Amino acid sequence: MNYDMLLLRFGEFTLKGKNRNRFEKTVLTHVRSVLSSYPAAQIQKEYGRLYVALNGENASQLIEELKKIFGIISISPVVVCPSQLDKIVETSTSFLENLDLQKETTFKVTARRVWKAFPHPSQEMNHLVGSPLLKKFTMLKVSMKDPELQLRVEIREQGTYIYCEVIPAVGGFPRGSNGKGMLLLSGGIDSPVAGFTSMRRGLEVECVHFYSYPFTSLKAKEKVMELAKVLSGYAGEVKLHLVPFTEIQTSFTGLGQDNLIITLMRRSMLRIATMLAEREGALAIVTGDSLGQVASQTLSSMNVIGRTTDLPILRPLIMMDKSEIIDIAKRIGTYELSILPYEDCCTIFVPKSPATNPNLRIVESIEASLANLQTMLEEAVERTETVVLTPESMIEAAEDGIDEEWF
Ligand code: ATP
Ligand code: MG
Q1: Sequence-ordered list of residues with C-beta below 8 angstroms from that of 324, at least 6 positions apart, any chain
Q2: Smallest Cα–Cα separation from 334: which of 183, 213, 210, 214?
Q3: 92-149 confidence digits (pLDDT tens)
Q4: Where is ATP bound in this sequence (predicted)?
Q5: Any idea which ligand is nearest the CA of 347?
Q6: Which residues 6+ apart lie within 8 Å of 342 measured at CB?
């Protein structure tokens, strides 16, 4: 089919009163950035909607890209004709011809007369367009309720828009329109999904990753960079803070409190993430925690761990099942990377039985006994390397120049 235009519908943010303009502008900027590789395409803005005139650009390819824009809930490819009855019937007929129906299909026409000067009201148009189509295409059977094929006809002064597909898009809030958070990004399945779902709600996300070289390998770090790069595909670019964690982590070993190591590590991670958040102007911390998934994600573990920060900890996956998380990971393109078998700093020195019910007083007294813990945390922040990743980033090249200093 030769489509003339794409119709993009905005999501729920249109309910947001005086912020609506700001949200719409953000979506518009995002759409423009996608359209920069489709020079013939042109944007037309209308209240509550966007139109992209294709001018010969490839519709299906463009739809694939526009579908990922946060704030857009659906897209319809549209054929445009002059707002005259005979032209509308003619164009609707060729529209259906192009669909090449092979079996009996339930059908209705839904006309909408937006341009009130057009001589036939909407109801009448349903019949004026529907009857000749039903006569010509014998496979069509009228059904008012839930038809398989609904031909929509929008009559406007500048032209009539004809379409039947409503392709679901990602939805949510426009990119970066709801403030900034620091995402604790491990190499696992969960945290990239937590990042994506946060971004979809309009959160600008900066990633923080803790690595314990040489206990964790370069490959593990490269994997996290690759994951951040996938996330940057949704955000345009993503900052990744790489925090050296070896010293802090090893200070927790040999204390005779192995079952609390994970609790202690998580508390230190949160403290560092909080310092980075302050530095970067972020107002929340995001994790991939899911209730009960592992020992550190029991209610009492999260309680003891969460006390280290005054910032809200956002846990988008907290009530999701692993299978649901995996489904999203597959859809957003992080799953295959996440299952690569490189170790994370939380999987080395894992105690046989990590505490599921850690005692806050004991944890605090262990931390108090480590005189230089605060200094180590501050040093880790100072030695943090920050990289900015985009979908085009060459990660191997970035790693080539790394020398020992990096760790
Ligand atoms: P993921 O949750 O990403 O799949 P996982 O399940 O192996 O990895 P957990 O041990 O369950 O990770 O950790 C819970 C959360 O703690 C992660 O979702 C992530 O937000 C954070 N986290 C764990 N390890 C790291 C790390 N090395 N760097 C940054 N954040 C981490
Ligand atoms: Mg997890």
Answers
A1: none
A2: 183
A3: 999 999 998 999 999 999 999 999 999 999 999 999 999 999 999 999 999 999 999 9
A4: 184-185, 209-210, 266, 288, 297
A5: 1
A6: 187, 216, 217, 219, 220, 223
